[in-house]
Amino acid sequence: MKCLVTGGGGFLGLAIVRLLRARGDQVVSYSRSRHEAVERLGARCEAGDVADARALGRSMRGVDCVFHVAAKAGVFGPWSEYAHSNVIGTTAVVAAAVAAKVPRLVFTSSPSVCFDGQDHVGAGNDLPYATRFLAHYPRSKMLAEKHVLSWNGRGIATTALRPHLIVGPGDPHLLTRVADRARRGKLVVVGDGRNQVSLTDVENAAWAHLDAAEALNPGAPHAGRAYFVAQGEPVALWPWIRQVLEASGLPGPRGRVPLAVARLAGTACEGWWFLSKRSGEPPMTRFVALQLARSHTYDMEPARRDFGYRERVSTADMTARATAWLGTEVAARRI
Exactly one of 30, 82, 129, 137 is catalytic; which is it? Predict the structure, then answer.
């Protein structure tokens, strides 16, 4: 099979490329720039703008499946940047795939498209989209997801996966950011510290994409639908963070901040960053405060039932892998 992976040099994209190459598939990675790690796996790297439908179309010639993983992530920044990468970019990917007669497209979405600031425990596929968003990223991903799913059966089979809090070796998001704050003595528990969350080992997230692609056709149970992807076993977020940090040689969280205070701080930080036109992300936002304090766990039965997803890396092994990698990074003083 020949596959194209947008964002193939990223954390999840590279894991997907690695699995595809391990089973002998031809792989084209389409990203903003070329990546040596992708080329070392024997995949072809092509650089371009994800919103350039013509360039994408040339890269999709003869492709059997597109994994659209590329996105602008983050919790702060101008809407134009999120719209370009996540909304316009996704529209271009779908248009190019349809024009190139690619039969299947698996889209990487996010559970944040449904996050309304409340606890979600054991949530299934019937969880509705949020109607109010505290960050541009989830809004842009919601619009992109809707667009992808609307095209199922119109010359292409589509599905969307929503992996939650992906962790593992090379994690540039959750583990790296938490570890950096812990190292500087600025990590505190937000909320009461009892919230449960579903994490996702990066290898499981990648396998979910391959599982979904294998079973995908316009009439498949998962075609035209979105699915949460995570470990079957949730964790207590803050004890889990403390365990991983301390086993890696870093201090755990110091103190606790009530959610109401964190939200107020987030509002103030967002306002100051906006008014002063500062670059980068504020140290706290309303969205981050709620994500760190609320429970969000998801039911994996729909993914198991509809496209045969199964967990290859257990939660215990996920924790061990994350801890070993973080410990190595700390020892090498890269964090």
Answer: 137
